[in-house]
Design brief:
CATH architecture: Alpha-Beta Barrel
Enzyme class: hydrolase
Region (Disordered): 22-42
Order of helices and strands: HHEHEHEEEHHHEHEHHEHEHHEHH
Number of helices: 15
Largest sheet: 8 strands, parallel
Radius of gyration: 20 Å
GO molecular function: beta-N-acetylhexosaminidase activity
EC number: 3.2.1.52
CATH topology: TIM Barrel
Shape: globular
CATH superfamily: Glycoside hydrolase, family 3, N-terminal domain
Helix content: 25-40%
Pfam families: Glyco_hydro_3 (PF00933)
Strand order of the largest sheet: 9-8-7-6-3-2-1-10
């Protein structure tokens, strides 16, 4: 459980993002002698003090995190669709983080907005131009002490928090000795589960103490996978029995150090997922929730890996189908990298909820976990 100090810190920091501001969409067409009826964007959603007061569509929207291209894209998807999170990616115009746009965008939905980023350091760094570069996890583990790694993460976390970032999809807790340039490679702290636990734990603690929610990835372990889930339609791990004594070991400790979230990878696990990737497998989510891998049960937020651009998913499903399957399987938050499909995704989810394909109690529980990770509701 989170300490009162940490919960208070996250609640206070979430409040820093709250404000209201209109924006200006372009009219569809306009002759020289006519004026638009309005130059204002849709009004921001009224703040919600009781999660039960959210509409079914808004509850479902809180379970989505989508990549944005710039401030206008973010403002539109938050104010019009009320998504719970946005992702800052390699394609994002980073000026939205330092031009004063973000507080107004964050306040445009009914609940505080999760502003997420994939900032691991090394070759996966989206914010290097703003917060500086950092060596890869492997180099950190080879050249720095655990305390030094904590300090590095704390400093970078404070810089991220100053930009408005609230969630970092880091650290990688995959266990591997693969060459640096492979899919995990130098993104891992090493091939010793105990060392990975120690160093990843220090990194997560630094982010957490800076007010940024760390996300452990890629459950149940990509380090010994058969390929790259970005480019391969099927990536298979060793059998579950082998993962329990290696790849899953860091989760036994790190999932107890709240607040923390977990990202589930697109990995087929013999003895667990069948032909489904873990991100779409009820058995994988149940393993994490129950702790039946030798760890504790986990009741924090569970994210999917990207459901749109990675071959392990998009060679099988479109975004709407993948999001539905992920939420049915047990994900709290479905992640993908564009905003254009959000309305269609929500249409499909609303229908699934009405038809009983999505369980209302499970949706409500996921909404609550996401809200708790943000520090609670606004009021």
């Amino acid at each position: 459980m989170a300490s009162p100090r940490l919960v208070a810190t996250f609640a206070a920091l979430s409040g820093l993002l709250l404000a209201c501001s209109p924006s200006t969409p372009a009219p569809e067409s306009q002759s020289p002698d006519t004026k638009p009826l309005s130059t204002h964007a849709p009004m921001p959603a009224a703040p919600v003090c009781d999660l039960a007061a959210l509409s079914p569509r808004d509850k479902l929207a809180q379970l989505l995190t989508v990549g944005v291209t710039d401030a206008a894209d973010a403002r539109s998807v938050v104010s019009e669709q009320h998504v719970g999170g946005i992702m800052i990616g390699s394609w994002t115009d980073l000026s939205m983080l330092n031009d004063g746009s973000l507080p107004d965008i964050s306040a445009a939905g009914p609940l505080p907005l999760a502003v997420t980023v994939d900032e691991e350091g090394g070759r996966v760094s989206r914010l290097a131009s703003l917060i500086g570069e950092q060596p890869s996890a492997r180099v950190l583990a080879q050249t720095k002490s655990v305390d030094e790694v904590y300090g590095i993460a704390l400093e970078r976390g404070k810089k991220m928090r100053g930009l408005g970032i609230t969630v970092d999809f880091a650290p990688v807790v995959d266990v591997t000795s693969d060459p640096d340039d492979t899919v995990v490679g130098d993104r891992s702290f090493g091939d010793d589960p105990a060392k990975v636990t120690e160093y990843a734990g220090a990194y997560a603690r630094g982010l957490r103490d800076a007010g940024v929610l760390p996300v452990l990835k890629h459950f149940p372990g990509h380090g010994h996978g058969s390929g790259d889930s970005h480019t391969a339609g099927v990536v298979t791990t060793p059998p579950l029995a082998e993962l329990q004594n290696n790849d899953l070991v860091p989760y036994r400790t790190l999932t107890t150090q709240a607040p923390v979230a977990v990202m589930v990878g697109h990995l087929e696990v013999p003895g667990l997922t069948g032909s489904d990737p873990a991100s779409l497998s009820p058995a994988a989510y149940d393993l994490l929730r129950s702790g039946n891998y030798g760890g504790p049960g986990f009741n924090g937020v569970i994210y999917t890996d990207d459901l749109s651009s990675m071959a392990a998913i998009n060679q099988r499903y479109g975004v709407a189908a993948a999001v539905l399957k992920a939420l049915q399987a047990g994900a709290d938050n479905a992640l993908w990298i564009t905003t254009d499909e959000v309305p269609a995704v929500l249409d499909g989810l609303e229908k699934a909820l009405a038809d009983g394909q999505l369980n209302q109690a499970a949706v409500d529980a996921a909404v609550q976990r996401n809200a708790d990770a943000k520090g609670g509701v606004r009021c």
